[in-house]
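Entry 12.
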Amino acid sequence: MNALTITLGTIGVLLSLVCWFAFISGALKMVNTIRVGQPAPDRWRPFFPRFKQMVVEFLAHTKMVKFRTVGWAHWLVMVGFMLGAIVWFEAYGQTFDPKFHWPLIGNTAVYHFIDEILGLGTVIGILTLIYIRQRNHPRQPGRMSRFSGSNFKAAYFVEAVVLLEGLGMILVKAGKIATYGGGHLSTDFFTMQVARILPESPELVSVFAFIKLMSGMVWLYIVGRNITWGVAWHRFSAFFNIYFKREDDGGPALGAARQMMSGGKPVDMEDADPDKDTFGAGRIEDFTWKGWLDFTTCTECGRCQSQCPAWNTGKPLSPKLLITSLRDHGYAKAPYLLAGGRTDLGGDEVGLVDAEGNPNEAKLAKIPASAREESGRKLVGETEGLLEAGELAPVIDTETLWSCTNCGACVEQCPVDIEHVDHIIDMRRYQVLIESDFPSELAGLFKNLENKGNPWGQNAKDRLNWINEMEFDIPVFGQDADSFDGYEYLFWVGCAGAYEDRAKKTTKAVAELLATAGTKFMVLGADETCTGDSARRAGNEFLFQQLAQQNIEVLDGVFEGVEQSKRKIVVTCAHCFNALNNEYPQVGGNYEVVHHTQLLNRLVRAKKLVQVKAVGQDVTYHDPCFLGRHNKVYNAPRELMEASGAKLVEMPRHGERSMCCGAGGARMWMEEKIGKRINIDRVDEALTTNPAKIATGCPFCRVMLTDGVTARQEEGKGEGVEVIDVAQLMLESISRVEAAKLSDNLKVVQQPKTPVEVEETAEEVEKERVEEVEAAAAAPAAPKTTGAPKAGGLQMKGGLKAPGGPKAPGGAKAPAAEAAEAPAAPKAKPGGLQMKGGLKAPGAKAPGAAKPAAPAAPAESSASSEAPAAEAPAVPKAKPGGLQLKSGLKGPGAKKAAPAANSAPAAPAEEAPAAEAPAAEAPATEAPAEQPKESAIPKAKPGGLQLKSGLKGPGAKKAAPAAPAKPAAEPESTPEPEPESAPEPEAPAKPEAEAPAPPQAKPGGLQIKSGIKPPGRK
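Predicted 3D structure (tokens):
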């Protein structure tokens, strides 16, 4: 050591204290700012899978290597930064003593070799990245650069520091070899060559060490003062962002959209309160802390931007710039939020207020003026004209927000697992549910979904039109089959597949292929409703939950009694596939869902579909975003194309990097007013392969691509090119089967339940009915259930009830009436048979069709009628409303309800005359609440059978006759019917005419205006 080295060392230590303080202060400020976000309790566990994924993604660079050159260069820089820190800290000693090295390990061959590799690798890696950045500099015309909009000042600073660090490692080591000798070709192969040109000077070694140390210290100071420099901070925050990613299995945040959360809990729209709950993100503080971590971690590499279909076609949306705008706004507003500032929905201060609720000016004055000004900035809104007027523009422009197609390319490519799509959907939710500010085209979409159950606004009955165009019979649930027994798949046709002429060709092809292979399937027909994908992606979470709950009611009714592993659904629409498979489990619907390309490919492998004539044409395949990126189904469609004999010609962008068609994110229903149309851009790429056909696996993609091809053909391009579904290629290659054979292949003979099963089930439902009656009698405060139900929960336009709401009480008796009756199980509730959700049991017919049972007919003597009365509880005797299963299903084969007399507890026949006199006086002496009128028993209350969501009950064809349906559970006030009156069907004619039909739903229920009928309705 000498004066120079001691001076350099002392200066280095003192400056490092300042720099470390700045860095640690910045890190703490960043952590406190991130904690401003909403809770996200689902991001912490399970620990080991998350930690494993973080380590794998870090060491293997699984995301970075998708850009090959960038991948290996960044890996070298990353390792040089992390392990190079060991060498960097060594510089503290080397500034004082040039001979210094770490004790024990510093002079070993392994340490020398690692030092050599780190220094050389860091320099090579950073020079490669500098070259790539300059080659893709935004100075290029158009939008070719993925670095357009990135912070170049921060990038250049970081690149310079990394280069100095790498050179410092090399020069310090080479200087020590030049001054003190040593070195070996196996461990110091490069630095030994550099040492030849360096002089022998201990002071020079200390100078190199000081430069290496100070370059790092300057980095700490500058980065600590600029916590929005993601290109620098990501080397720390990326580890946490990867660990806390949405999917704990390591997958990107694709597939299901993130549930709408408030306070860390999913929002049930029926119970939600807009004054207390957070509906999406309308302010920066509405994002979760994971969202803030996303904003902080963005490296501004622009890979998301380079893949974005909106950006590539001239739209204002750049996923990178959207995230960085939210980051800059959040950190600018952070001092106000950290001080306790908050505003309500009207923009009034509610956080920093005095005892009288007025803004506390003293506390507000302590907050920087820039932060107070930023706190009043809108998150989303129109920016045009505001800047010119000198007003504060919103953070995100409205057009930017609605340009997103939800294709997921940004999420797929992001190397630090930022969840762009989830943040965009959250902002859309606030705009739709709170601000009611959305593109005008979406108003028509929402109205059609509310009133008609499909985006096109067509009638529900027209969902069956495509079946009428088929030459063979396709079973429809509720018409040709009353249960799922014997079937393998429920074919979910989807709105496009049922209504859109081009998509119907796919539906027909899939149906014929499945029938040819002997795969037994049924369809829902008019009972099917839109899955709500477009509503959710457009931000209308209320409408999505409503439609989802309605569909789940129907599907659970179809799969009633079917084990979970056999609840199989096949779909042709990629959007339906994603919703049913990934999003319906969030609201209670769990099914095994397969895409038609997957199922058909399985049938090909099983030799149930065999090629007899190869297609033999050049066909290019377009990967639907919601089938490919969102669900990783890439191989099945291609294998199916190969099985058909088509010659696949891939487009430049395919697989994970496939270009969107422009229909996702509800963009199917919106016009593109800025830039080039996305579908035209995709068609132009497809035509570069000179295909005979363009194949796809989604009806939305088919519509968009067909429109694009038509537009280009009008210009004389792509003559003869046709857009088809992969299933149509397969259909062209097989031997077609005659219609009668196809009908036979789909025919299923359903077996009725055995008497033993019926008896056991009837006993179970008997017990449940007794418990229900007793519970109702024990609740005197329960409100009466007659009349229209009260509106509950949030209401939408059109009178739709919030999903999952209370059941419509149309089928329930008034508590007073039930309390007056004996708790006899045979008493059937008005409304007839009911399932859990109000669905009709397989084979069950309306109670109105019941005829008197045989035991009540004999009239020879009281003794002759005594035996049948005593045998009333026997299995063959149907209770009023028919035998019922545990869930409310009527036993198979029980076609007509037994009369009320036989369903009552057995009473001695000789006592019947004694009860006649009081029975005649009952209407005058007993209160109506205790003894209902005779006609009231068979009369269905308004609402009839209803599903949980308010749908009309299936199967009820007419009101039950008064006399047969009257129970004999109250012998002291109700006489036994005369034997000779039993076979007379004319008696109940008047009550039947007066009573409203049981299937009518009460107003306020969850109904689609088109009057969708529930399953089983004939």
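Annotation: Residues 3-34 form the longest helix (32 residues). The radius of gyration is 37 Å.
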